[in-house]
Amino acid sequence: MRVRALRDRLISGALAVALSGGAAAQTPETPQYGGTLEIATVFAALSALSWDPYDWNWKLNHDTGQFYEQLIAGDLSKSIRKGGQYSFTIDSFLPPDAQRGELAEKWELVQDPLSVVFTLRKGVMFPDKPGVMASRELTADDVVFSFNRSRSSPKAAPTYFDFVDRVEAKDRYTVVYYLNEYNAEWDYRMAWGFFSAVTPKEVVDAGAGSWKNVNGTGPFMLADFVQGNSNTYAKNPIYWDKETVGGQAYKIPFIDKLVYRTIKDEATQHAALRTGKIDILELINARSVEELRKSAPQLKWSKRLAGLGSFVALRTDTKPFDDVRVRRALNMAINKKEIIAAHYVGDAELYGYPMHPDWTGYVDRLDKLPAAAQEMYAYDPAKAKKLLAEAGYPNGFTFKMQYNALSADHAELAPLVVAYLEQIGVKVELQPMEYAAFLSAMTTRKHAPGYLMNASHTTPTSAIRKGFVTGELWNPPMYSDPKLDAKVLEIHRTQDEEQRKAMLREVTADIIAQAPCIWLPTPYVYAAWWPWVKNYGGETSLGSMRPGPVYARIWIDQALKKKMGY
Length: 566
Fold this sequence. Notes:
Blueprint: H1 2-21, E1 36-40, H2 60-64, E2 72-74, E3 99-101, E4 104-111, E5 114-120, E6 125-126, E7 136-137, H3 140-152, E8 164-171, E9 174-179, H4 186-192, H5 201-206, E10 220-226, E11 230-235, E12 242-245, E13 248-251, E14 257-261, H6 266-274, E15 280-285, H7 289-295, E16 300-305, E17 308-314, H8 324-332, H9 336-342, E18 348-349, H10 371-374, H11 381-390, E19 398-404, H12 408-422, E20 427-433, H13 435-443, E21 450-456, H14 460-468, H15 482-493, H16 497-514, E22 517-519, E23 522-529, E24 533-534, H17 548-551, E25 555-556, H18 558-563
Parallel strand pairs: 1-14, 1-15, 19-20, 19-21
Antiparallel strand pairs: 2-3, 4-5, 5-9, 6-7, 8-9, 10-11, 11-14, 12-13, 15-23, 16-23, 17-21, 17-22, 18-23, 24-25
């Protein structure tokens, strides 16, 4: 009863927040300029991993999206907070009507010849960067250079850009991507994805891997970086974009300085928020919400499904996980509903990965999945033991499982998984790892047979491809099925969206039933911020894990902050 009561209070609180701060029309306030915005982001425990798009690092947009812009970004005017339908909390999905031109003013998919034509904005400037480059205008040559450099990286995801034949600058403001074939992800891969930032050649010549050399057209400039402590961004005084508030256009960014605080310890994050040392804490687990509401009742809140789904990848290229019966047995051995009730205080989705539940049309509800897929979410230790015996493991077996020691959630979740598996005779040796070593183990294919991780939902067409197609980098179960590979390729070549949706529902059900992973619940998480933070509603990404354009539109009510004693 205690868990249920706590869950009900959390849910009712979240609904109250939604009703008070959601889509209802409100009288707009007048923006204010100046001040510093201090944030512990969704990756507060993790320092920047790279500054160079050539490294193909998943976290790059999160740290560089303040100064490196892209052709397309999310349109924040379509947010729920502003009366639209999009939360902008799904890390990497921008439907066409949720997009706006960033560096591109307009774009068009042309059928003959098959190509995408981008027309760039005029007057977008790179600021002066002493020792690196003089201030100059962005041109089509910068887009072509950035694409070709990214494509040539030895770290590039295999086949990612194979659908592109070549990219040409037709004139100073026109870029044409000529395609070998249609790809349903063309906009994501070329214009607003993880690997489509526009980087000037001068930065590359100076050394794009050094934070001291980076420079882009975005609203901020990287002013300082202290590993394990902070990223500091200063206002770009010649930034091109504006924000419309109350019918009036204002030059952005409003704040003078943006600071990412790296805070590894969850309790320290909460203390920093309570004491006003940070203005926003973007990731709070449900178990901590009630205490924070009591200790800092003035905080504003938003709730979202975690953008990263959790699972234990089971290496299908390693015995005993090459046998689907073993993989299915491990799923049946874990009481996932109990994990939701006890570990996530009732605030999680049983079926929240690999597809995001909000991708309407692309994903079926759990009760609509075939029986073989539904079984992967049912607790049945007796059947699990029977499957193990049929596979030749009547007495179980032992395997190693690695996890990221920086993840507070996984540090507590891993022992729960171990305890459940012990009940069917399967013993797990846990190996906590620092994140750099943890990630390197997977990318070099040296990870353990069991690998507890979380991964981005990405987009409806990317979720299955990146996680389960042969040879993909983010395929830690090392899953390989020629039939699935062919089906995913067909999906990407299909221009009709309704056909794609039906095909994706089918392959998702199949991959769930094949159980290359132990599918774990996806928790709901919260963001909290002080009332002096204006023009914000908990949005976390306007591209692929790219919050920079959100922060550029926030202003600080200095008088209110002072009045509240901070």
